[in-house]
Amino acid sequence: MSAARNAGIRRASGHYVMFVDGDDWLCADAAENLLPILRSLQYDCVFFGLRESGAPGDEPCAESRSIEGVKGGPDDVAAAILGFQSPFQGYAPGKVIRRSILLAGPSIMFDERVSILEDEWFWINASCRCERAFILNESFYVYRRRQGSLSSGLNEDRSRQELCMRRRVHKYVRIHYPRQERLARGRAAQCVAGLVRYYYVHEDNASLRSIRSAWKAYPGSTLLLLPGVPVGRKVSVLLCDAAMALHVSPILLKPLRSLLSEGMPEQ
């Protein structure tokens, strides 16, 4: 996927780049509303909302809109990507950017060596060059959620890979967007907490030992003061934190297995 997107960036002839996955679709008036913002107001990038759908056409786009949004810079873009309450996140779609920004100096491309969070890594890097950004409240993109897609069915191996990328993003954000360091750290902590919870549910002592150093760097308590994190998740990460701190054996948490496994994807 990254190679395909990079090929598109290189071969594009227009002034702007926008990504649309093959099983999703744009609202019919997307370009009509987005291009004037970019052209007349000289913005480097525009973020707009995504919403989910089960099948093409079952959630038609609104016919009338009131285009509202906020102006910002690189730091605001980074917050929109990393925020727990943000509707934008680091997805490849839902954003338009000047192509010249990506190709100026060292070009910004998708990392073809990774297949998880490669889109977030791309946008975190690109944000540094977005001096004038416009973040819309409107949704112009419909994301089709279906079984078997590349982003579905997360498992332990993919979570491990995600943790590597979360640490990479955190390191980059700490240098380039220090005001958003807490968010990047919280994202990594959430990933670690998910793995800890998984290992307790599956009574995997060996993996709990292997994840301990990552847990010490990114404990679940990191999530407590961050906005947008559900209360239930905070309770489960605190429970896992206590279990890890006290070296509690997974077998002792068997009575709480249903609580810990709530919302966990089937393997």
If you had to describe this structure to a student in words, what would you say it looks like?
The chain is of the alpha+beta class. 45% of the residues lie in helices and 13% in strands. The chain has ten helices and six strands. It has helices at residues 2-11, 30-41, 74-82, 99-103, 118-127, 156-176, 181-201, 205-217, 231-245, 257-260, and strands at residues 16-18, 25-26, 45-53, 69-72, 95-98, 133-144. Strands 1, 2, 3, 4, 5 and 6 form a six-stranded mixed sheet that branches. α5 (118-127) packs parallel to α6 (156-176) and α7 crosses α9. The longest helix is centred in the middle third of the chain and has 21 residues, at 156-176. The relative contact order is 0.14. The model is unreliable at 149-153 (pLDDT under 50).
Structural class: alpha+beta
What best-fitting shape do the alpha-carbon axes yield? elongated
Strand content: 5-15%
What is the chain-wise order of helices and strands? HEEHEEHEHHEHHHHH
Largest sheet: number of strands, sense, barrel closure = 6 strands, mixed
Mean pLDDT: 87
Radius of gyration: 20 Å
Catalogue the unreliable spans.
149-153
Strand tally: 6
What portion of residues is helical?
40-55%
User: How far is the first residue's CA from the last residue's CA?
Assistant: 24 Å
Number of H- or I-type helical stretches: 10
